[in-house]
Design a protein that fits this description.
With 499 residues, the chain is of the alpha+beta class. 65% of the residues lie in helices and 12% in strands. The strands form three sheets. Strands 2, 5, 7, 8 and 9 form a five-stranded antiparallel sheet that branches. A two-stranded parallel sheet has the order 1-6. A two-stranded antiparallel sheet has the order 3-4.
Length: 499
């Protein structure tokens, strides 16, 4: 009767068939609930594009490059400037070489001028093309930064999924250890096992629970690092919903290398920088050619007395002077000796003449135009202490360095793409082998449990099979995500998504 009782007790604590732990890279996407926000990989990449500080710094260079292009074209247009000034001057005469100059009344003066100038040389004429090439290089840098950001987010997203899969595996192992503990207690209850089996099962359960706690904590830590990459705060209970499939690469290595040579943003950026360096050489050689400078300007002035009495006095002085001149001419013609002071002493201005004199006061803003001027200057450089030669040599050295960087990147590109492709192929084979090993370990654990139930095996056999199952399943999870990380590394080496 002991064996039937043992089987019945074992049946109460029987463990169902061990399921394969769900992998984030294989299981279908689970629908998100209202309490659990979801985040797909593409959504994560979109958030990173909008919020990642490092990427935003690269994008900000686009504004600088655009401003430099506009400034280069603007330098081909004349620089136009204007100037307006006013002056107050006290009405006091000044003497120079015994002669008195200046007005007796206070004055307000104004002047305005408008001028335009432009300079043309090889540097200014090639600047628009140079800045456009620099703008293209900045765009290539942004594309490269975006590709690096995509790779970093994808890698961290996969790492967070991997840690979640490990946490799910540990939950499965905890459930398995709990079932084994219940089985050991049932066997002890019917006298088919010793308390030592129970203690071993309790130790195994405690170790599995500790591993589960650490795995869940690490999964949350990796999510935090993921949202650090995104540049936003992590919501509570967020679920990562994107699932990946393990499949062979549909493109052969030669085609991948050809795509990389065309689409790799880092290589394209270096090629554009080489074009910029070549244009800098042309600009530096332009220092040997003449420079044309054009200038044009026009100006005007205005004058106003603060007191018109001076104008009336000046008009009276002019009338007296004309009278004295007339008397002097008549004296010469007739031989008379009439005193001009006596003859003109009683002269006064009429009201009409006074009004006309006062009306002669100008306005501060009633400007009188000065003659305009246009100047053209053509300058030829002769010698400036070998500064031009130094600039040309430095520009040529920079161009050569840029060409060497392009060549180095092309060599690195071939090595990176080839290495990533071979690594991906090896990881694909590793996943298949680890999957087979995990299935075998799961079957061995089921057999060990059944043997222990019927008394044909020991608890040590069960514990050993459980450890082998845990290692095999963990290796399988790691192999799956190493494959996906290798795929992401291949995409980064090529410079574009491949799935």
């Amino acid at each position: 009767m002991r064996l039937p009782l043992l089987v019945a007790a074992a049946g109460l604590a029987a463990t169902p068939a061990l399921p394969v732990p769900p992998l984030g890279a294989q299981a279908p996407a689970a629908p998100a609930t209202a309490a659990s926000p979801s985040l797909s990989l593409e959504e994560a990449i979109g958030l990173a594009r909008s919020n990642n500080p490092t990427y935003q710094q690269a994008v900000n260079n686009r504004r600088r490059a655009g401003a430099q292009v506009r400034a280069a074209y603007g330098n081909l247009l004349p620089n136009v400037g204007t100037n307006f000034s006013t002056q107050y001057r006290e009405g006091r005469q000044q003497f120079f070489a015994g002669q008195a100059f200046g007005a007796q009344a206070d004055q307000l003066n104004s002047s305005v001028s408008v001028g335009a100038d432009v300079t043309y040389n090889v540097a200014s004429l090639t600047a628009p093309r140079l800045q456009r090439a620099n703008q293209e290089a900045v765009e290539a840098d942004i594309t490269g930064s975006e590709q690096q950001l995509r790779t970093a987010v994808t890698q961290q997203y996969l790492l967070a999924l991997q840690q979640s899969a490990r946490a799910q595996l540990q939950d499965t192992l905890v459930a398995t250890a709990q079932s084994q503990l219940e089985l050991a207690r049932a066997r002890v209850a019917v006298g088919a096992a010793t308390v030592l089996d129970v203690r071993r099962a309790e130790v195994a359960l405690g170790q599995a629970q500790v591993a589960g706690i650490q795995a869940r904590n690490q999964a949350e830590v990796e999510k935090l690092r993921l949202f650090q990459q995104l540049g936003v705060a992590q919501p509570d209970n967020v679920q990562l919903t994107t699932r990946f499939q393990v499949a062979d690469v549909a493109v052969e290595l030669p085609a991948l290398l050809e795509q990389a040579r065309r689409a790799n943003p880092t290589l394209n950026a270096l090629r554009t920088r080489e074009d910029v360096a070549s244009l800098n050489v042309r600009s530096a050689k332009g220092d040997y050619l003449p420079t044309l400078q054009l200038n044009a300007g026009v100006s005007g002035f205005g004058n106003q007395f603060t007191n018109t009495n001076g104008l009336v006095s000046s008009a009276l002085s002019n009338k007296v002077g004309q009278c004295a001149q007339t008397v002097a001419i008549r004296n010469i013609a007739t031989g008379q000796t009439t005193d001009p002071d006596v003859a003109c002493g009683g002269i006064a201005l009429t009201q009409t003449e006074i009004a006309r004199a006062r009306a002669g006061n100008g306005s501060l803003y009633d400007l009188t135009r000065n003659p305009y001027s246009v100047t053209a200057t053509l300058s030829f450089p002769i010698f400036n202490g070998f500064t031009r030669e130094q600039r040309v040599q430095e520009a040529q050295a920079n161009r050569n360095d840029a060409a060497y960087r392009v060549r180095a990147q092309e060599l690195q590109l071939v090595a990176d793409v080839t290495g990533a492709f071979r690594t991906l192929t090896a990881q694909r084979q590793t996943v298949a082998l680890q999957e087979q090993s995990a299935a075998t370990a799961r079957e061995a654990l089921s057999l060990a449990q059944e043997r222990y139930r019927v008394g044909a095996g020991t608890f040590i056999d069960v514990a050993t099979a459980r450890d082998e199952y845990a290692r095999a399943q963990t290796d399988y999870v790691n192999a799956v995500y190493e494959y996906h990380r290798a795929f992401a590394a291949l995409e980064n080496a090529v410079g574009r998504p491949l799935r």
